Amino acid sequence: xxxxxxxxxxxxxxxxxxxxxxxxxxxxxxxxxxxxxxxxxxxxxxxxxxxxxxxxxxxxxxxxxxxxxxxxxxxxxxxxxxxxxxxxxxxxxxxxxxxxxxxxxxxxxxxxxxxxxxxxxxxxxxxxxxxxxxxxxxxxxxxxxxxxxxxxxxxxxxxxxxxxxxxxxxxxxxxxxxxxxxxxxxxxxxxxxxxxxxxxxxxxxxxxxxxxxxxxxxxxxxxxxxxxxxxxxxxxxxxxxxxxxxxxxxxxxxxxxxxxxxxxxxxxxxxxxxxxxxxxxxxxxxxxxxxxxxxxxxxxxxxxxxxxxxxxxxxxxxxxxxxxxxxxxxxxxxxxxxxxxxxxxxxxxxxxxxxxxxxxxxxxxxxxxxxxxxxxxxxxxxxxxxxxxxxxxxxxxx
Length: 398
What we know:
Layout: H1 2-8, H2 19-40, H3 71-89, H4 97-108, H5 115-128, H6 146-156, H7 159-173, H8 189-192, H9 194-204, H10 207-224, E1 225-226, E2 231-232, H11 252-266, H12 276-292, H13 315-330, H14 336-351, H15 380-397
Antiparallel strand pairs: 1-2
Helix pairs in contact: 3-15, 4-5, 4-6, 4-15, 6-7, 6-9, 9-10, 9-11, 11-12, 11-13, 12-13, 13-14, 13-15
């Protein structure tokens, strides 16, 4: 904890000369931001987002799927989940972060698993919103949809797909520099905005996007990353919180989003970028910790360091771990011999939670900390995480 107090009050991250004032201001700002953030997300959740909560007995698990790492089995699982979610969600597409994760998952589905079908749906989605991000200028949640816009732009090269999200990020980069109010104050934001900036760099060749992303990433990391556990606190209000067993409170889903953001940034970052080794090191540190606390069923509980307190796995976080670990192995960043057994066990665990209709269960609803949910709870962002995981597992199977 001393590391975090020191970082929060570091002269490079604040203007106030008083450490106590700096820390108190940061905690108050973060607490208010959390309240505002959750309030903004508290709108009624439609059936396309939350489709769970039915008794498990009335929803039989799928019997036509296998968790084996073969092309045939991985693609079949991806199709089943993607088809079910697309059929339910397309009439209710949204610009918010929950759907942005789903869209990234649809974009990741390989051609061999009917990827074009889902990309075509994403093109229809983008046209529906005129390729605009969400309404909040500086909020990373409303920028995350830009990942899909930019991935489509790289295939189709229609300027309409690029211009609005580029203008949004240009505007964000012109906001006043308030180092005592980090732009990305919650760890999930590292999935939302950084990949957009990294993709803009790749597309435009303008390094300002990558440099801005790099600066903001390490400001957030210095505040929320625990160098002892190699995990991220959800936000500054969690720095002093503990599980019932005395361990720090580290949220599975939040850390999953961070690891997914890490690999999506690394996918765009040049190998000679000066700070790239820091991202690789952070991925390797987090991967080692995550592998060491994997559950017997291959999955991870909502509170990472007190798994016995949570009866169900949390599959959106678990899927993002599979995605990041598989990407690391596929790209030579993580040792195959060490992590392949972890991935195999985790993928089989995820597939075991797919129901006959195609939904994937055990997904915690919107929140900011470990919470309760049913085995059938299913949300669009969890589906997106599963499809992203499948895309890398399918590569691994090759």
